[in-house]
């Protein structure tokens, strides 16, 4: 089979984990690193890092993403499949049961972005024209299929199930931006991040699962399903993807995944560096998902864990956070568990 790419983007690690790799930096969570992560379990206290999946509520965050809807199976023997009397021919059992089906927009609430979530235009085959490429040179229209294509829509490669198969368990490290910036809409660059980490004595090592606590998700949850645009789009901190030093740190630090308790991890860019006409809206998405194979976790509920860690002068914990093993999906809800 012909190689998928001849040249890779400047910062890409394509091929470094194998020509056909589909999990990127998750390869850095080795058995030895997982063993070290388990040593962070000292009290045996566990935290659920997911919102209820019907939050934020409404669709003001991303109009196309809707809250979950529940359906029940068609009636059977005159009954809905809720409080359904289980029968054996004419004999009546004493059991009743309930089944349901749920339509979930995979990125509506606490979630992982799959490596198939974002691609970029790049001339990887050097034919003079940019094509749509994803991590490791996988292609839009070939590996990532649209609804009009046979077998689509879905990811033939880079689907979220590949992430699930790694189990997604390792050492989490918390950085608390909320303690510095509160509800201020702050674009956090490299210098800001390093200052927080220095002052709080946070160390990040290769393979660590990096978590940024901003307080946004906690504030959204407090609105009980009715958050407004001011909160959703104009409050609390986000990473600043226009800061090349921050992008370089993400690359050099060796973090395995990047997680935040906000929407999109980073703020949308309104203009290109140097005033270019076209530029990425979400440069961290590009560096992480496309170039380096770093999955992004978004809308996680980190505040209770963050507060516990801060009170106990700790920043590290065991994190277990598989997505659904849902073949071909571009993202997945998650119910991550942190154990301290
Ligand atoms: C977008 O798709 C804009 O970002 P996210 O990764 O938040 O889903």
From TrEMBL:
<dbReference type="Pfam" id="PF04199">
    <property type="entry name" value="Cyclase"/>
</dbReference>
<protein>
    <submittedName>
        <fullName>Kynurenine formamidase</fullName>
    </submittedName>
</protein>
<dbReference type="InterPro" id="IPR007325">
    <property type="entry name" value="KFase/CYL"/>
</dbReference>
<dbReference type="InterPro" id="IPR037175">
    <property type="entry name" value="KFase_sf"/>
</dbReference>
């Amino acid at each position: 089979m012909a190689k998928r790419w001849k040249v890779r983007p400047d910062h890409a690690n394509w091929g470094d984990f194998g020509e056909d790799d589909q999990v990127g930096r998750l390869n850095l969570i080795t058995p030895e690193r997982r063993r070290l992560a388990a040593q962070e379990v000292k009290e045996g206290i566990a935290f659920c890092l997911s919102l209820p999946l019907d939050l934020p509520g409404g669709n003001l965050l991303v109009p196309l993403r809707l809250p979950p809807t529940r359906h029940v199976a068609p009636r059977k023997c005159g009954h809905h499949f809720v409080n359904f009397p289980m029968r054996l021919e004419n004999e009546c059992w004493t059991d009743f049961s309930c089944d349901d089906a749920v339509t979930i927009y995979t990125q509506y609430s606490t979630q992982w972005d799959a490596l198939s979530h974002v691609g970029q235009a790049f001339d990887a085959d050097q034919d003079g024209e940019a094509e749509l490429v994803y991590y490791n040179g996988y292609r839009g229209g070939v590996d990532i299929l649209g609804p009009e294509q046979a077998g689509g829509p879905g990811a033939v490669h880079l689907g979220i199930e590949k992430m699930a198969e790694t189990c997604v368990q390792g050492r989490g490290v918390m950085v608390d931006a909320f303690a510095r910036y509160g509800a201020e809409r702050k674009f956090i660059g490299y210098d800001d991040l390093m200052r927080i980490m220095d002052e709080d004595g946070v160390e990040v090592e290769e393979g660590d699962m990096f978590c940024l606590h901003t307080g946004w998700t906690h504030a959204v949850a407090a609105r009980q399903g009715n958050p407004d645009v001011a909160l959703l789009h104009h409050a609390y901190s986000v990473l600043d993807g226009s800061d090349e030093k921050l992008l370089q740190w993400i690359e050099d630090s060796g973090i395995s995944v990047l997680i935040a308790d906000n929407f999109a991890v980073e703020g949308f860019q309104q203009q290109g560096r140097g005033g270019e006409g076209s530029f990425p809206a979400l440069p961290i998405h590009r560096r992480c998902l496309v170039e380096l194979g770093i999955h992004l976790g978004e809308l996680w509920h980190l505040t209770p864990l963050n507060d516990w860690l801060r009170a106990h002068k700790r920043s590290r914990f065991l994190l277990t956070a598989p997505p659904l093993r849902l073949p071909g999906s571009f993202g997945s809800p998650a119910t991550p568990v942190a154990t301290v």
